[in-house]
Design goal:
alpha/beta, single chain, about 20% strand, 4 helices
Amino acid sequence: MKFGLLVSEGPYTHQASDTAYQFAAAVLAKGHEIQRVFFYHDGVNNATRLTEPPQDDRHVVNRWSALAAEHKVDLVVCVAAALRRGIKEEVLAPGFRISGLGQLADSGIKADRLITFGD
């Protein structure tokens, strides 16, 4: 089965990002595919390499980057939401790219299931 994910909440302020990551890792471990993860609204904060959590905390951004590198997952950040929050190409963490809402629509069409994480 092919899944598309929509993450609309930022790391460290809401459980949505952690839950989406854990879901994606479980799906991939079961042999399914993640067609794309689309970060929207405050979810775009998952994509900035400027995030520096304390040493004893998980690094959500690095987790997403590692997942993308290991499994070739397409991590897409909404351009409009990113620009509203001061996030540009030069601050993106590895594995993330900026694009438009068309990528979300495309994911909804191509994936068997599109699952939303966040309010």
